[in-house]
Amino acid sequence: MDRIEKILDLLKVSPRDNFLRHALALEYIKAGDDVAARNLFEEVLTHCPDYVGSYYHLAKLLERIGETDLALQWYRKGMQAAKQAGDNHTFNELQSAYEDLLY
Questions:
Q1: Are 63 and 101 in contact (CB under 8 A)?
Q2: What pLDDT does 84 receive?
Q3: How far from 35 is each of 23, 28, 65, 86, CA to CA, in Å?
Q4: Neighbour-count burial for 20-34, b at 16+ CB within 10 Å, e otherwise
Q5: Distance of CA 90 to the CA centre of its chain
Q6: How far is CA 47 from CA 16, 40, 41, 44, 62, in A?
Q7: Contact 42, 62 (CB under 8 A)
Q8: CATH of the domain at 17
Q9: What pLDDT was estimated at residue 1?
Q10: What is the C-alpha to C-alpha distance for residues 94 and 71, in angstroms, rounded to an integer?
Q11: Cα–Cα distance between 81 and 53 in angstroms, integer?
């Protein structure tokens, strides 16, 4: 059984587990399924905007597929969420990626 199938099986038991959904989105990226990954990241962040780890990966995905303005928006949202959560490490990663893309 591959990793995607394993995670999908786990999600049957815990369908709203953000850790599992985030992990599944990362596996979809590895498999080249950006649409599925993007949908999962957006779903996680819509239902749980304080799940700060997903902002970076969603914005990087958007950056890679040429949706620069949307990537910048997600970086900004992520910086705000990380700041509110007191997560300086994630804030700094998001800020660095944001500035790299902006400048």
A1: yes
A2: 96
A3: 15, 9, 10, 31
A4: bbbbbbbbbbeeeee
A5: 12
A6: 9, 11, 10, 5, 19
A7: no
A8: 1.25.40.10
A9: 63
A10: 11
A11: 10
Q: Are the C-beta atoms of 38 and 53 separated by less than 8 Å?
A: no
DSSP string, 43-73: HHHHH-TT-THHHHHHHHHHHHTT-HHHHHH
pLDDT tens, position by position, 10-65:
999 999 999 999 999 999 999 999 999 999 999 999 999 999 999 999 999 999 99
pTM for the predicted model, two decimal places: 0.94
96 contacts 55 by C-beta, under 8 angstroms: no
| Residue 4 pLDDT greater than 90, yes or no | yes
Tell me the residue range of the domain where 77 lies. Answer: 3-102
The arithmetic mean of pLDDT across residues 69-92, rounded, is: 97
Q: Which two tokens stand for residue 20?
A: 């599992």
Each residue of 25-40: pLDDT tens digit? 999 999 999 999 999 9
Give the torsion through C-alpha atoms of 59, 94, 44, 19, to 10 deg.
120
